[in-house]
Write a structure and sequence with these properties.
This is tRNA wybutosine-synthesizing protein 5. GO terms for molecular function: metal ion binding; tRNA binding; tRNA(Phe) (7-(3-amino-3-carboxypropyl)wyosine37-C2)-hydroxylase activity. Pfam families: Cupin_8 (PF13621). Belongs to the TYW5 family. There is one protein chain. The chain is of the alpha+beta class. The chain has two domains: about 5-265, Sandwich (Jelly Rolls); about 270-310, no CATH class. It has helices at about 15-25, 40-45, 45-55, 85-90, 120-125, 125-130, 270-285, 290-310, and strands at about 5-10, 10-15, 30-35, 60-65, 75-80, 105-110, 145-150, 155-160, 165-175, 175-180, 190, 195, 215-220, 225-230, 235-240, 245-250, 335. The protein has a ten-stranded mixed sheet. Strands 1-13-10-15-8 form a five-stranded mixed sheet, with no helix packed on it. Helix 1 (about 15-25) links the parallel strand 2 and strand 3 (about 30-35).
Length: about 325
């Protein structure tokens, strides 16, 4: 039986802004940043403290009877709860009060005040808790896009997807496993929009998804206080090993005009990419005017031209961690 190739995400310690910008960021690969000061949140954010500080502010949450949430097929429901009640339920393994089942799973992804226009911002939605969290200053302040507050039940697994902005995932409490896949492996992930149709990445149905085995998987486990750098376009899938709280900080690393201004979530394709995809659809409709053998011939020519014009390297070639992610200046690099 074929086994998917796995790579351990490297761990950096003693990371400051200079180290991040000069040694981590240029590699454009995931990296764990350990020992960065996230503020008192790492020690303070217990269930009781969160419930006290968050109070009875109502939050919209995902609720599922199974821990493996599937966005494409919507195996969850949306419900609203007071924040303090939500936190208590999410920390439980079995519930006396529930919507679907005693062992249902909960997930919060914070939203902006106007969900259709405003990105999430921890300092606006949860100002008392934001005082405890120190946003890493690894990018220019005017590049900031959003800070997304996330809380999940133990065992909750979120679907594989990509984002179009760089981000830092701060694991404040609990442990979390993260599996990542290179942008170059997009063709092996059976995409539907920005999400993979392969829900169970640990035991995939290879009869339905035979190409999935070709995708190279990068693995890591985040400990409380860890930061994970997730470059734009890298696919990621998360599994909460404990009840956990985290904050995603997204920033615009492309010029502001490259992004869709009406995208409060930061996951719409860049404007130029969206235009290119629309043009491609029109070209494909034009090819439909031809007989099958001509469509096949000119389709292959189009594919070859796209590969020659856009691919950075052979998509089937093996990729290793860049030299910029190696042991330098006495800092610690280690595999999981």
């Amino acid at each position: 039986m074929e086994v998917q190739e796995r790579v351990a995400v490297p761990i950096f310690t003693e990371v400051d802004r200079d180290v991040f910008l000069n040694e981590v960021y240029p590699g454009r690969s995931p990296a764990i940043l350990r020992g960065v000061d996230l503020g008192p949140c790492v020690d303070r954010w217990t269930v009781e403290y969160l419930a006290l500080k968050g109070g009875q502010r109502e939050v919209k949450i995902h609720v599922s009877s199974v821990p493996q949430m599937d966005f494409l097929h919507k195996n969850f429901i949306y419900r609203t709860l007071p924040f303090d009640e939500f936190v208590r339920r999410a920390a439980e393994t079995k519930h006396s009060d529930f919507f679907l089942a005693e062992e249902e799973s909960y997930y919060l992804r914070s939203l902006g005040e106007d969900v259709r226009k405003e990105p999430a911002d921890l300092s606006r939605q949860f100002p008392d808790l934001a005082e405890d969290f120190h946003t890493p200053r690894f990018f220019e302040p005017d590049r900031f896009f959003s800070s997304v507050f996330r809380i999940s039940s133990c065992g909750l697994q979120l679907w594989t997807h990509y984002d179009v902005m760089d981000n830092l995932l701060a694991q404040v409490t609990g442990r979390k496993r993260v599996a990542l896949y290179r942008p170059q492996d997009a063709l092996h992930l059976y995409l539907n929009g920005d999400k993979s149709e392969v829900l169970d990445i640990d035991a995939p149905d290879l009869k339905r998804f035979p190409e999935f085995i070709k995708a190279q998987r990068y693995d890591c486990v985040l400990e409380p206080g860890d930061l994970l750098f997730i470059p734009a376009l890298w696919f990621h899938n998360t599994l909460a090993l404990h009840f956990g709280v985290g904050v995603n900080v997204f920033w615009r690393h492309l010029p502001a005009e490259a992004y869709d201004k009406k995208d409060p979530y930061g996951n719409k394709d860049p404007v130029a990419a969206a235009r290119a995809l629309q043009t491609l659809e029109r070209a494909l409709h034009t090819l439909d005017e031809l007989p099958a053998e001509y469509r096949d011939f000119y389709g292959r020519r189009m594919v070859q031209r796209i590969q020659n014009r856009t691919y950075c390297h052979n998509p089937d070639s093996e990729t290793t961690i860049p030299r910029s992610l190696s042991h330098k200046h006495g800092r610690v690099y280690k595999d999981l």
